[in-house]
User: What shape does this take?
Amino acid sequence: MKHSVIAVSMIGGLAILAQIQTHAVPASFDIRDDIKGLEDSLPQSSIPDPQANRSYVHFYEYADPNISLFKKDHELHGLPPLPSLTEEQAYQEAEKITAQLKKSVPNAIIYSAQRNKKWVALAKEEMERKGPPVKRAQLLIVVDRNPKVQELCFVLALPKGQGEWKALGGGKVSTGNTGRKLYYITPTGVFYNTIERIGYRALGTKNKNGIRGNGIKGMRVWDFGWQWAEKGWLPNREKGQIRLEMHATDPDYLEQRLGHPASEGCIRVATKMNEFIDQNGIIDVLYNQAAHKDKRFSSVLLRQRQSTPLAGDKLVVVDSSQSIDLQGN
Assistant: This one.
């Protein structure tokens, strides 16, 4: 009898644990499970997705206006449309963003005309290889992982035939380091801040070495999902999976090291740069849209944010050391 009581107690405990796990907020989820009707009208055979590592249909990017299924889909589901600017409006907004960058981010970098051309060329090259066609004027966050560069730049991307792309400026970053065990090389490619995943904010806690890995409390962490990356500590550069994120770093100990490879694979930015990207919603366009239906997204976004109508959803990681015609500063 005693053994039976113990067995029942253990079973009960496991059941409770299962319930807790079931109701816990998942690290990755499909918002279609939670926003009824957002994408549930998609056909059984989904539109071919050219981005192999994406498990969903980004229907605002690939929507064919000639297919009635996608016409004004945002209106059908009570979502606001994605912001859309003309070429002239986009350039004017880009000037405002550049002015805000200079004002709010100490040590922000405004590049020369020559460097601007290289940033645009790198962004276009990677987008043509791995990204979708640009359907609306938007900002890209472009990170150059070249060990001799280690910087990001905000690039205005315009649809084909609607004007020239423009580099606005940026700042220093740190990407994946080599030579240290469990340190991965940040992968190149086009990565998305999508409604498949919910990012989070740093708690400001310190590790055993007294370092705040994601920066001070409240700093935004953008989650780009599981990605394949080279193991920087192995000569053969075998690949493994990392959770690719972009986040702030410890302002007292590590921020001064920005500009050099130092991370375990993620992208580190300065505190003020983190705040600038967050406040202006640079890559939060889909979060802003989903927030009208799901409080989990609005809880991550700043209440007093002033999202730019050029907001996009793409992080583009390039490596200028691998582009023969674009090497050098």
Notes: Residues 2-23 form the longest helix (22 residues). The chain has one domain: 87-326. The longest strand covers residues 220-231. Residues 87-326 form one domain.
